[in-house]
Amino acid sequence: MQNSDSTSKVVDADEKVESSPKPSKKSAVALSDRAAFSPTEFASLFGKGAVWGYRQLYAGRVKAIQTLGHTMIPRTEVDRILASATEYQGEISR
Q1: Is the residue at 6 inside a domain?
Q2: What DSSP designation does 32 have?
Q3: Does residue 65 sit within a domain?
Q4: In total, how many domains does the chain have?
Q5: 1 FRET partner, CA 20 to 30 A, in 9, 19, 61, 63?
Q6: Which residues have a Cβ under 8 Å from the Cβ of 49 and sit 6 or more positions away?
Q7: Is pLDDT of 74 > 70?
Q8: Residue 41 forms part of a structural domain
Q9: pLDDT by residue (tens digit) across 41-71?
Q10: Which helix (H) or strand (E) holds 56?
Q11: Which residue segment(s) compose the domain that 67 sits in?
C-alpha cells in the first residue's frame, strides 16, 4: 500500500509524460527572403548540385562576398542571372 501523501506517481505505458520544453533553435529564413546564399544554396535555386555553384564562382561567372569566413553569393547575382535569361528556343546552345 502506498501512503496518500507520497510524491511518486505511477504512469501507465500509454500515458505521455510531458517534459520541459526544449529551447527552440533560431528559425531559418526562407531562401526567398535571404540577402545572400552559400554556393550550395545558390546552386539549389537553379536545380543544380553544390559543385555547379562552386564552378560558377571559380569561373568568374558569379561575384561573391566573404563575411566572417563564409563565402556568400548576393541575391543581386541571382537576380542578374535570371534577368539575363532568354526564352528557350528548342535547341541546345553550346
Answers
A1: no
A2: G
A3: yes
A4: 1
A5: 19
A6: 43
A7: yes
A8: yes
A9: 999 999 999 999 999 999 999 999 998 999 9
A10: helix 50-58
A11: 32-83
